[in-house]
Amino acid sequence: IGGRPSMCGTCRKGRFSATRNVSACTVCSAGRFSATLNATVCDECPLGFTSNDSATVCVACTEGQYGVFVNASINSSASADTLVPVCVVCSAGQYNPSTGKSACVGCPVGTFGTTEGASSFEECPNCFAGYFSNRSQGVTECTRCEAGQFADAEGEFGCGFCVPGWFVAVL
Q1: Least confident segment among 29-33, 79-83, 92-96
Q2: Does the reported pTM lie above 0.85?
Q3: Cα(127)–Cα(102) distance, integer angstroms
Q4: Which residue, 3, 14, 62, 137, shows the most beta carbons closer than 10 Å to its own?
Q5: 30: confidence class by pLDDT, cuts 50, 70, 90
Q6: Are 112 and 118 in contact (CB under 8 A)?
Q7: Dist. CA 13–CA 69, nearest whole Å
Q8: CA 63: distance to chain centroid?
Q9: Residues contacting residue 58 through CB under 8 Å, at least 6 positions apart
Q10: Cα separation of 35 and 65, whole Å?
């Protein structure tokens, strides 16, 4: 009569209603999901996973990504102390060969990485001869050997010193 609703509607999967007397259900925020109808809360995805676009299930972070907790209030009306899991691309100098992980792995010593979202150590090329890398945490470029030192092969993790009577010219 008069266009008034005659029944309560059902909250679809991926939405919830936590209080009475609402006119619409709320979409679950990133990192949260609702796999059931008529949900009163959204469940949180575990670290290394995030919710799909419809917020109905959790999906694993893909290769080249890792899971972190972020402040939910950044992109929703949640309180400032609410953390939710999201997937983030691995930084240059790191890679992640697996799904559902919470960290990336640094390129091995003697190598470097310039690609964000790398999924294999094979995306970490060797340092060129004359350069080295002795760290395995996010190295994006190799260090040149100093005058009088050398790295005569690719993929070195340090430079050698010239013995007396020998020298290395810096190019």
Answers
A1: 79-83
A2: no
A3: 28
A4: 14
A5: confident
A6: no
A7: 23
A8: 9
A9: 33, 45, 46, 49, 50, 51, 52
A10: 24
Burial level of 5, CB count in 10 A (0-12/13-18/19+)? exposed
Residue-wise pLDDT tens digits, 100-145: 999 999 999 999 999 999 999 999 999 999 999 998 778 999 999 9
pLDDT of residue 167: 77
- Residue 51, CB half-sphere, CA atoms under 13 Å: how many? 21
Q: DSSP labels for 41-105?
A: SPEEPPTTEEE-TTSSSEEEPPTTEEEEEEEGGGSSS--TT-EEEEEEEPPTTEE--SSS-S--E
Q: What is the three-class DSSP state of 126?
A: strand
Q: How far is CA 103 from the centre of its chain?
A: 7
Contact 28, 14 (CB under 8 A): yes
| Contact status, residue 68 vs residue 78, Cβ threshold 8 Å | no
- Mean pLDDT value of segment 72-85: 62
- CA-nearest of 108, 92, 90, 104 to 154 is 108
160-161/149-150 β-pairing: antiparallel
